[in-house]
Amino acid sequence: MTSKSPDPRPEYGNYTHMSVKDHFLGASQTIVTLVKEVSDLIPNAGPLAQVLGITGAVFEIINQIKTNKDDCVLLVERILRFLKDMAEECKLLDAPIVDGSATARRLDNLISKIDLIKKDAETWQESSRWDALWHRDTLKDALLKHNTNLTDCFHAFNTGALLHLTARADNSTHQMILPTGLAPGHLFTGLVVLEAMHSYKGPRRSCLKGTRQAVIDKFFEWKESGVTHVCWFSGPAGFGKSAISQSIAELCASEGILAATFFFLRGAGARSDFNYLITTLAYQLTLSIPATKPAIESALREDVRIDSQSMEDQLEKLIIQPLKALAGHSTTPSVIIIDALDECNDHAKIGTFIDIVARACSSRQLPVRLLLTSRREDHIIRAFSSAVATAATTELSLESFDASKDIEAYLQSRFSEILQQNRHI
């Protein structure tokens, strides 16, 4: 009775670019709509209620709303409101469903099963009473099969969603307990990652004194030239990008020209989370450039949920506008350093960030220079390859610098340390 149906996904939209929250809201409406369509097609929908796993009370409401559109809208709104409240309570349902992922496959399966029920119902509705009686055993078997398949799909999808939420909740809890060093009630409480700053007293090392001097000198030459506003240090793993960034940050801080820093680190909770980048930079601006503090704090007071706004709005209100207001009052460009873009957990946001920053630098005279470092990964290369980013950026490839003398100096230093610690050698 059933046959392989075409891919039903186009009928329900491209969900793969929706957030999990949006998907739950949209999918619930799709399911309710299909239930109503199927219940309309079959006069005696009692068995179907069991197939769909719908309680008697809910199905009674569906029967009542067949001829009353307002009640139907009310039911859908009630279900969506419940799911929305749950999503807002969790505040975790913002990860995109990736096409081809386990969640997407479970969703495909679930939609396919619901679609098959709909198509079977249409077939049964077109059958004569004699055919319905003659094929009653086949119908019964089909209902049982639908019941099993749909139950399995619902369980698989719900279990996957719960696992997803649990993992996100665990990660969020880990990030929330990171010490911020900010007193309760501070405007930036929960928005700042101190561990990502160059000044954090952690296991972050700068270059050995006297090494990577050519790279460091090249950076300061670029800064003074004013040719572009963005400098991109690129290089493979192990080329010392983070150590160079730390050294430059310390030198800039000693000269009073360091505005803010953020050192991404893969798998380190909030340090790998893009959502903390802009607010952490803004917090440092209030300290390094006090003149920006009124504008930044005003933006935070006006919108206590500014961290949930779009990246464009956050950058505009917390970084660009406060710095732009100083453009006519400062002649010494300050430096913002963002290290290891490739270790951020959101590739799409990094690409968007590079584009927004490049456009801001191209259209406004901001009193800052940005040093960005990363490996040459595809998503980052694409972002820097746009016409706007190319015009605003100077790339310095660490592979083009001769590091043989630096390696020699490093080995001599390490051997000296070993000798000092092991005098019996």
Topology, please?
Elements: H1 20-41, H2 46-51, H3 56-64, H4 69-90, H5 102-126, H6 129-134, H7 136-176, H8 213-225, E1 230-234, H9 241-255, E2 258-263, H10 277-288, H11 293-302, H12 311-324, E3 334-339, H13 347-363, E4 368-374, H14 378-384, H15 387-392, E5 393-397, H16 404-421
Parallel strand pairs: 1-4, 1-5, 2-3, 3-4
Helix pairs in contact: 1-4, 1-5, 5-7, 10-11, 10-12, 11-12, 12-13, 13-14
Structural class: alpha/beta
Helix content class: 55-70%
Strand order of the largest sheet: 2-3-4-1-5
Number of E-state strands: 5
β-sheet strand percentage: 5-15%
Helix and strand sequence = HHHHHHHHEHEHHHEHEHHEH
Task: Write up what this structure looks like.
By secondary structure, the protein is of the alpha/beta class. The protein folds into 2 domains: 9-176, no CATH class; 194-420, 3-Layer(aba) Sandwich (Rossmann fold). 57% of the residues lie in helices and 7% in strands. The protein contains 16 helices and 5 strands. The protein has helices spanning 20-41, 46-51, 56-64, 69-90, 102-126, 129-134, 136-176, 213-225, 241-255, 277-288, 293-302, 311-324, 347-363, 378-384, 387-392, 404-421; strands at 230-234, 258-263, 334-339, 368-374, 393-397. It has a 5-stranded parallel β-sheet. Helix 5 packs antiparallel against helix 7 (136-176) and helix 12 (311-324) packs parallel to helix 13 (347-363). The longest helix has 41 residues, at 136-176. It is elongated and about 90 Å long. Residues 1-28, 34-73, 78-95 and 166-180 have low confidence and may be disordered.
